[in-house]
Known about the structure:
This protein is an alpha/beta fold. 31% of the residues lie in helices and 18% in strands.
Amino acid sequence: MNPAHYFQPVAVTGIGMITAQGNTADESWRGIRSAADVIRPWDGPLPAALRNIKVAACEAFPRPLDFPDRLWRRLSRTQQLACISTDEALQNAELPNCQISTDPPMGCFVATTVCGMDLSERFYQQYRLNADAADIDLMRRMQPYEVLSLLYRRHGFSGPGYMNLTTCVGSAMAIGAACDAIHTGRCELAIAGGAESLCQLLIAGFNSLRLVAPDGCRPFDRNRPGITVGEGSAMLVLESMQSVRRRGVNPIGYIKGFSATCDAYHITKPEPAAMQAVRAIRQALQKARLTPQHLDYINAHGTGTHDNDATEAVAIAQVFESSPAIAPVSSTKRLTGHTFGAAGAIEAAICLLALRHGVLPPNAGSVDPDPQCHLPLVRTATSKPITTALSCNLAFGGNNTALVFSRDAQVATAAEEFA
């Protein structure tokens, strides 16, 4: 491989995360590590037939002090979640909450899917009762760019901006785009991630596709019934190595490689041979100058649907076909729910925290692992020194991403060429 194509390490100096497991990264990590069962029926408005479906909903979270109560209540829940995780990430990275005077400017790269659908659904409820009295302003928050524009206005970001809408790979794509902006010199500092909130559309829509597991997902289980719908947000502060040295901060970890591919096989079904998923993983490893043998942990997309888990298992097996063994694998979807546009960032944060704490998070929910998947699943949280980790995300439309993380910035060895 041409050395010019290698991926220059990008430091992660801040993590902010809010999930059904907790309102901060530390709280979420503790819940994930202990495999806390937090899924429950949603208290939002749903048809009677769907009210028993268990989801991964965030607990009540505090309003940031700079928001007047009236304005906070006018925001969509997705915007609120993004604000909570962004505040924590900036604080974690020892950066000011307002970036107006920073030089060089800070970029912002975000993903979502539903954005303000919760408010749009509230508008529709009002409209059905009294069309003339329905609050039309509720429709303003439906546009996905409202998440990005709010973060720019609130924090004074002045670097490049990016909004991604590719559902389950969205925030992984946002992280990749932020790394690209840093590599090309468009910014030295960036915040990247995603946010997604529960709404009727997500729960009813995926249930209509017969993809929802009423009592919770069981990733890679022989009898896996489907997904757990979830909500949450994660944001990462990314920096060039020059910025890290100038600020004198200690990175949490490093992004060493990223790749995205698309097979366009089907609007919802994954391509069974997993050729493009394999290509994404191999390219990410090549860019990181690593081989499969160097991986200590794989955080799988692992939604708990029959087709997704089977295809992902095929992809992982192909990547490791020349290796003595496959690295330990787990999906954390049972613990956080499938958070769609936020999934890539939440799972990136989980990988980085696993590296920091030396713990493999468990593949919760699986009671009878599918022998057809042939994966070494992490059954319970396991303490183990971890140097490198891989996060995979697969989305509708055949979109695939792979992110490689490392505990240090040094490259141990040159990568082998993949066929």
